[in-house]
Amino acid sequence: MLKQSYQKYWFLPLDFLIKICKTLDICTAELQENIISYKSWGSVNYITQPNLPIQINPVFDMLYAHHIGDGTVSVAKNRMPYFAYRQFNEFYRIAFEKKIEFIFGKIIRKKEKFKDFTRIRCPSVLSSLFFKYYDLNDRDFLSETARIHKKIYENKERMLAVIAAFIIDEGYIDSTQISIVLKNKSLIEDLKKICDNLDYESKIYYKTGDYASYCGLGILRKGMRRLYSDYLELNKKYPLIDLGIKGVKIKKSFEIYNRKIIRTKGNEEIIICILKSEKLSVNQLADRLLMTRQGVRYHIHNLLNEGKIRILSKEQQNWIYGV
């Protein structure tokens, strides 16, 4: 196994190397310094240029939260369990991969080009570290039964990183609050505890009817402001903790609330004036006017009933309006 011809094609078993180190009185820290790549038994994907020793920081905790939010755990015969993260937004998908490599090192994938897929696999050798560190099993990460581990509550940065992950995966932002809706009341209560610890004004609300099994957390406007301020500081320290477009929406919600036009008449006239020269959707108008989507829909409904505007087409599930 120690022949160079063997090492050129095969990985060496870690327990074998540790036994040699003990026999020859070589410190395992020295072994660690000379590791150039590693993987789990039976895995085809491996980590090169490894970051050893592995650092536990808010990015590590954010990955843990992503695995609960939009992750799955795959258990295959004769293989260690591994995480997979489903994300349709390309920015967030690439950001997830960068977070993994920031913590662990460069991942060499043999069978897939991850940019072509919406589901990113976290190699089993890395996935196992989350199980070990948080003392959990593969069932503890299921979105309907998962809980926030007690280690997360140890400091502000760890808690904020977890909230940021859930905003990315499960959050919805409007002009009044950030909403996180899950089919897991206990997990919502854990997130509420984080908000309370961080002094983010929030509330839990319960769905009814067909959605009675769901529960929601609303981070209210005052809480949003404090969260966004804390997030900007954490982002300076760890740029990979990036809310992306949802961070932009949070910032824009403050602009909507603070704009002078919100308290003046004439919004419908402004919408008509814009639609005379452009064909836009509700979302595009909301961004242009710094209004809520609900507010724009209200005016669009009135203008349609009055015959002052009309529906021109439908693009990507959005109605396009014009005069």
Features:
alpha+beta; Endonuclease I-creI; Arc Repressor Mutant, subunit A; 4-stranded antiparallel β-sheet; 13 helices; elongated
Structure explained in plain terms:
By secondary structure, this protein is of the alpha+beta class. It is built from 13 helices and twelve strands. The strands form four sheets. It has a four-stranded antiparallel β-sheet. α7 crosses α8 (185-197). The longest helix is centred in the last third of the chain and has 17 residues, at 221-237. It starts with a helix and ends with a strand. The model has no long low-confidence stretch (mean pLDDT 87).
CATH class of the largest domain: Alpha Beta
Spatial order of strands in the largest sheet: 7-8-10-9
The number of helical elements comes to: 13
The major sheet is characterized as:
4 strands, antiparallel
CATH superfamily of the largest domain: Homing endonucleases
| Computed structural class | alpha+beta
Whole-number count of domains:
2
Low-confidence spans: pLDDT under 50, at least 5 residues?
A: none
User: Total strand count, please?
Assistant: 12
Rg from Cα: 25 Å
The average pLDDT value, as a whole number, equals 87
CA-CA gap between termini: 76 Å
Order of helices and strands: HHHEEHEEHEEHHEEHEEHHHHHEE
Shape from CA axes? elongated
> How much of the residues is beta strand, in percent?
15-25%
Looking at CATH, which topology of the largest domain would you report? Endonuclease I-creI
Q: Mind telling me which CATH architecture of the largest domain this is?
A: Roll
Q: Percent of residues in helical segments?
A: 40-55%
